[in-house]
């Protein structure tokens, strides 16, 4: 996967990847097996680029009994180019949501079930002993934003099964 990332970024200059992907790929070492995908923590690696690459992971590891593998692969795939919790947890989120769709899980459950998987991702990151201090400092943001969203939509509890949206749900009104 490392080799493919590096080759694609070099071969497709007209496809403008996000800055974190470019920076992350520049630091990958495809010829060094032990350190191929280990990139430094990236304070700016919190964009959506890691999430856009993770859909195929959710298709590959869609069964509930493959959750641990889905977590590991999506986190590592995300960390290659977006080594920041918001970035690589976005990768996990996308992979999980695709797996939930393949499982036929009701959409209203996806956010809650994803938040249940986040502690498993945190434990995996602790076991890999990379950038633990930096991760701890930034981990809360991803979970807090999702929890806020679920509460705002009135679907944060298992007993809540209908998302609530404002009558006027347009961007201009929402951003005031």
Automatic annotation (TrEMBL):
Top-level taxonomic group: Eukaryota
Coiled-coil intervals: none
Gene3D superfamilies linked to this entry: ADP-ribosylation/Crystallin J1 (1.10.4080.10)
UniProt GO molecular function: hydrolase activity, hydrolyzing N-glycosyl compounds
A Pfam family of this chain: ADP_ribosyl_GH
InterPro entries assigned: ADP-ribosylglycohydrolase (IPR050792), Ribosyl_crysJ1 (IPR005502), Ribosyl_crysJ1_sf (IPR036705)
Family: Belongs to the ADP-ribosylglycohydrolase family.
Name listed for the protein in its UniProt record: ADPRHL1 isoform 3
């Amino acid at each position: 996967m490392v080799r493919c990332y590096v080759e694609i970024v070099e071969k497709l200059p007209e496809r403008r990847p996000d800055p974190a992907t470019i920076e992350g790929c520049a630091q990958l070492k495809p010829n060094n097996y032990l350190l191929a995908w280990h990139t430094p923590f990236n304070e700016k690696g919190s964009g959506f680029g890691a999430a856009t690459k993770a859909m195929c992971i959710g298709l590959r590891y869609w069964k509930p009994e493959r959750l641990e593998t889905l977590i590991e692969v999506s986190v590592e795939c995300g960390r290659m180019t977006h080594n920041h919790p918001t970035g690589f947890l976005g990768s996990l989120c996308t992979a999980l949501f695709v797996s939930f769709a393949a499982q036929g899980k009701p959409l209203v459950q996806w956010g809650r079930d994803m938040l249940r998987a986040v502690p498993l991702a945190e434990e995996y990151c602790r076991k890999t002993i990379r950038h633990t201090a930096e991760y701890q400092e930034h981990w809360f943001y991803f979970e807090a934003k999702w929890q806020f969203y679920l509460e705002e939509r009135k679907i944060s509890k298992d007993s809540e099964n209908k998302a609530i949206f404002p009558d006027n749900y347009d961007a201009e009104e929402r951003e005031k």
